[in-house]
Design a protein that fits this description.
The chain is mainly α. The chain has helices at 3-15, 21-61, 66-72.
Length: 76
């Protein structure tokens, strides 16, 4: 670990001694983790939706439209 990381860790540890800073840092950490998780899930969902659209296009171009009636029947 470098000098900057050690100093940063020491400052964070020292700041937690100040009343109110520890819980604030905890909340910020939770918010950041939540944001990263939401961004990851959004990206995964988007990728899967694109894959489904590609499959639908491939099936439609292949002339096999019977697949669509089975998958869209639940939406009606």
């Amino acid at each position: 670990m470098g000098m900057k990381e050690e100093l940063g860790g020491a400052l964070k540890g020292a700041a937690r001694v100040v009343p109110g800073i520890g819980p604030y840092q905890d909340k910020e950490s939770i918010r950041e983790s939540d944001k990263k998780l939401r961004e990851f899930l959004s990206s995964q969902l988007s990728d899967h939706m694109k894959a489904i659209e590609r499959l639908k296009t491939d099936i439609a171009q292949g002339g096999s439209l019977s697949f669509f009636s089975a998958t869209t029947a639940g939406r009606r």
